[in-house]
Amino acid sequence: MIDAIVAFFTPEIIAQIVRAVIGLTIFFLVYFMVKRLIKRFVFKKLKPQTATIIMKVIQYSFFVLVVIYVLEIFNINLSALFGAAGIAGVAIGFASQTSMSNVISVFLCLPTMH
Known about the structure:
Blueprint: H1 2-8, H2 11-45, H3 48-73, H4 79-95, H5 97-109
Helix pairs in contact: 2-3
């Protein structure tokens, strides 16, 4: 068991782990700085609900970037994942087509309604 663990932690794996830890540290430092700056400006200028949505989009974007970064460090091929995400996006687009057309028609007809 110990031999398997020692054999797994080659210098290349240790270098990848160190790169991942350094990268994650930098990502999270940048994330907290951006989050603080956006909180200062966005919450003053916009409604609280809009500001919260913007903060959530930024939060999820940073987490997606972190996951992609770590997967790239460990040489995991992301092309299949991106292909699946593209197909899922097309499927969701077709599934929500009717709902979105109804939402858009409400906005277009709203000014003419009395």
